[in-house]
Amino acid sequence: MRTILAFSNKTASLLTRGLPESCFGRVFKLKTMKLYLGNLPFSASDEDIREAFSAYGTIEDLFIPLDRETNRPRGFAFITLADDDQARKAIEEMDGADLQGRNLRVNEAEERRPQQNRGGGGGGGYGGDRRGGGGGNDRRGGGRDRDRRGNRDRESGGW
Questions:
Q1: Which neighbouring-strand residues pair with 81?
Q2: What does the chain look like in DSSP terms, one character per residue?
Q3: Which pLDDT belongs to residue 11?
Q4: Which helix (H) or strand (E) segment is 88 a member of?
Q5: For 58, phi and psi rounded to 5 degrees?
Q6: CA pair distance 99, 77, nearest whole angstrom
Q7: Is the pLDDT of residue 26 over 50?
Q8: First to last CA, the chain
Q9: Which residues does residue 33 pair with via DSSP β-bridges, in sequence order?
Q10: Rounded distance, CA 16 to CA 46, Å?
Q11: How distant, in Å, are the alpha carbons of 27, 101, 118 from that of 125?
């Protein structure tokens, strides 16, 4: 017969406090919390951020998004702390704190919303025919072979 015990995060935290993580790390999984760090200095490195948040427990993950074109940091990051109580403390104490001359914004990260279909990219430019570019959701192009009501222009001979 197997006995399954369930503990809240606080109970698990009390049971494991002062013991090496290897003792209970696999048995008790404390609830983690992902934080959003905004208004980061562009010069802030991975080590700088880890050093600033090391007082709030184990940092399980740190992600600094980079700009696709310049490959430089975009000015924000996401950090996952092992203990949600410590993460809440980090939010209270680090929100508005100075890091390399900038006031940080620290919040609990929100789940990413599904992307909306924003239509096609702009066609623009000088297309091969008279209709020109276009773009967005208007597939008709940008030319003059339709009148205002969407009817074909008889003089152009069609499309």
A1: 33, 59
A2: --------HHHHHHHHTTS-HHHHTTT--PPPEEEEEES--TT--HHHHHHHHGGGS-EEEEE--B-TTT-SB-S-EEEEES-HHHHHHHHHHHTT-EETTEE-EEEEPPPPPPPP---BPP--S--SSTT---BBTBTT-SSSSB-TTSPBPGGGT--
A3: 47
A4: helix 84-94
A5: -70, 130
A6: 13
A7: no
A8: 78
A9: 81
A10: 29
A11: 61, 43, 20
Q: Residue 98 in contact with residue 105, Cβ under 8 Å?
A: no
Give residue-wise pLDDT tens across range 68-106.
Answer: 999 999 999 999 999 999 999 999 999 999 999 999 999
Give the tokens for residue 107.
Answer: 């919040």
Q: Is 76 helix (H, G, I), strand (E, B) or coil?
A: coil
pLDDT tens for residues 142-152?
Answer: 555 555 666 66
Q: How far is CA 43 from CA 24, 39, 55, 63, in A?
A: 38, 11, 21, 15
Contact 106, 36 (CB under 8 A): yes
Token pair listed for 36: 């959003």
Contact predicate 43/100, CB 8 Å: yes
Q: For residue 98, list its beta bridge partners.
A: 103
